Amino acid sequence: MIQSERIKIYNSFGFDENGEYVLYWMQSAQRIKNNHALELSIQLANKHNLPLLVCFIVMERYPGANRRHYEFMLEGIDDLKTDLNELGISFAVQVGDVKALITDLSHRASIVVFDDSITRPLKQLKDDVGQLIQKQVFTVETNVIVPIETAYPKEAYAAYAIRKALQRQAAYFAVGFESSQLKNKSTIGNVQESVHLESVFEKNLSHLEDLPSIRKVKGGEREALNRLCSYIENELEYYDSLSNHPEKDVTSHLSPYIHFGQLSPVTVYEEAMKSGKNSAGLIEQLFIRRELAYNFVHYNPNYDLDLMKILPDWAIKELDRHRIDARPYEYNIETLEQGRTHDTYWNAAQKEMVLTGFMHGTMRMYWGKKVIEWTKTPEEAFEILLYLNDKYQLDGRDPNGYAGIAWCFGKHDRPFSERAIFGKVRYMNAEGLKRKYRIEKYVENIMKLEDQS
Ligand SMILES: Cc1cc2nc3c(=O)[nH]c(=O)nc-3n(C[C@H](O)[C@H](O)[C@H](O)COP(=O)(O)OP(=O)(O)OC[C@H]3O[C@@H](n4cnc5c(N)ncnc54)[C@H](O)[C@@H]3O)c2cc1C
User: Fold this and answer.
1) Of 143, 166, 195, which closes a domain?
2) pTM here?
3) Does 2 lie in the same domain as 43?
4) What DSSP letter does each residue of 161-221 carry, written as one string?
5) At 273, which CATH number?
6) Which of 1, 224, 345, 356 has the most other CB atoms within 10 Å of its CB?
């Protein structure tokens, strides 16, 4: 079922009777299962007895993305080529100027469907492309459980503000569906041949920065669904008691798949609930915290631009009052990036991220808090955190990352007792890590990884 709240009509053009196909520009929802934009496209094609063309455009210079991100994403696109074709759906993968390519494909379409985007680069691009297309365009919000504006009409102060509203709407929105079968499977002629993904790195993406990397995960919807299945079967039951422990590493590691839209949050929610296991902790993160992050990025255009325009007044006041406090250590971006501080735990977290493209959630909080403590100003810390997070995390450049970094400065949080540098913004220290976790074991795990690299 596609809830009507997910669908927006983008412009005032009508259905083009002379069109040859329905066109779905897949960008943020790189999957088949529980993809409401794909489902709407199939339903429109069936209604008008048309074939369906799904296209994916590989942008050669997507802001902030490097080879690590592209490899993960294109592994998924490669699988989709086979999986969509098996459903009788044509799939064109092209490289280059998105505006020109989509506009070109839209000329022969009867109607066009976009999936939703929330961060600035894709949102802007979709607006630009939408204005060039002279066909009716639908956008479909498929990467959240509850559509953002339906969930809450303004920027939420903290999780408590939206939790009840989200929970109330879960029974209606957190419902997966069986995809409809496409009826008209005829081949669409004269569409520029799809690029060969094996050669795309050499031909089009050779300029990308290649990071030293231990690949622990492969990208793609098939991998995502396997990972989800095995996680629910083997580890979900430990989530509530152990997910905070960096040394145990029992969180789901689903964030990169969710980030690229290879896995729908609806699927994770439904499968976790169906398992009958205790999934309260996981659902709090996946649903409430994640959709709070989407709320933040949707309603606050400064999410990655201006720290003082995203924080609550009390946090701004506290950070301002403590600007003059002496920093116990000061590190520049190079020292931080290389993980060469005095703090073994912090260095281990930084190395985990650099080497694997992932950092444990507890360490992300500690990692962010320490950068605030070790840099001259909150603004400098904000800039460094955004840079490192977006460059190295496979799930970077995501609303969760922007909200997570803002949280380190007091966003969505409450005042605690007063400290130097932080004022009443929550503070974390190494003693806490030692007291609560077997943090030396975490460091040992990362050192083993380093030896493999
Ligand atoms: C400084 C900082 C930076 C962060 N950067 C990112 C980032 O770039 N991308 C990213 O996806 N998350 C980010 N997070 C949020 C969170 O740490 C990660 O989503 C989580 O650690 C991913 O691991 P997992 O998939 O095993 O999570 P699990 O614990 O298994 O949770 C399941 C899913 O819930 C969502 N989720 C979990 N924790 C949070 C959270 N705190 N806020 C919002 N959603 C959450 C994610 O989609 C995750 O995949 C950041 C947090 C902080 C404090």
Assistant:
1) 143
2) 0.98
3) yes
4) HHHHHHHHHHHHHS---PPPPPS--PPPPSPPPPPPHHHHHHHT-TTS-----------SH
5) 1.25.40.80
6) 224
Q: Say if strands 137-140 and 52-58 run parallel, antiparallel, or are unpaired.
A: unpaired
**Distance in Å, CA 195 to ligand 1 centroid:** 33
SS3 95: strand
pLDDT at 439: 98
Distance of CA 285 to the CA centre of its chain: 13
Ligand 1 centroid – CA 87 distance (Å): 33
CATH number reported for the structural domain that contains residue 11 in this entry: 3.40.50.620
Query: Residue 256: which of 395, 388, 358 has the closest Cα?
Result: 395
Pseudo-torsion of CA 6, 38, 52, 97, nearest 10°? Answer: 90
**Whether the predicted pLDDT of 291 surpasses 80:** yes
186 falls within a domain: no
Is 213 inside a domain boundary? no
Residue written as tokens 């008008």?
Answer: 48
Pocket flag, ligand 1, residue 356 (CB < 6 Å): no
Q: Which two tokens stand for residue 298?
A: 């949707």
> Into how many domains does the chain fold?
3
Q: Is residue 187 part of a domain?
A: no
Per-residue model confidence as pLDDT tens digits over 111-164 = 999 999 999 999 999 999 999 999 999 999 999 999 999 999 999 999 999 999
- 428 shares a domain with 354: yes
Same domain for 437 and 352: yes
Helix (H, G, I), strand (E, B) or coil at 420: coil
102 and 249 assigned to the same domain: no
| Same domain flag for 294 and 252 | yes
- Contact 405 CB / ligand 1 (< 6 Å): yes
Helix (H, G, I), strand (E, B) or coil at 298: helix
Ligand 1, from 245, 259, 285, 365: best to mutate by most atoms within 8 Å of Cβ? 285
55-77 in b/e burial notation, b at 16+ Cβ within 10 A?
bbbbbbebeebbbbbbbbbbbbb
350: Cβ below 6 Å to ligand 1? no
Same domain membership, residue 305 and residue 295: no
pLDDT band at 453 (very low <50, low <70, confident <90, very high): confident
Instruction: Find the domain containing 68 and state its range.
Output: 1-143
For residue 419, pLDDT over 90 is answered with yes
Task: Look at residues 235, 267, 299 and tell me which one is the last residue of a structural domain.
Answer: 299
Same domain, 155 and 285: yes
Task: Quote the strand ranges of 100-171, DSSP E.
Answer: 109-115, 137-140
Collapsing DSSP to helix, strand or coil, 94 comes out as: strand
